Amino acid sequence: MLPRRQQSSATFRPIGSVVHAAEVLEAVAAEHRPIGVNELARRVGLDASSVSRIVRTLELYRLLAREPGTNRVRLGMGLVLLASDVLHGLDIRRAAAAELDRLSADTHETINLAVWDEDGPLIVDHRPGSQPIAALGEIGRRDPAHATSLGKALLAFKPAASERAVAHGRPERFTPTTITDATALGEELAGIRRRGYAVNRGELRAELYAVAAPIFGLDDEVVAALGVAGPASRFTEERMTQLADVVRDAASAVSRALGAGPAAGHGTGVAGRP
Question: Topology of domain 16-76, per CATH?
Answer without folding.
Answer: Arc Repressor Mutant, subunit A (1.10.10)
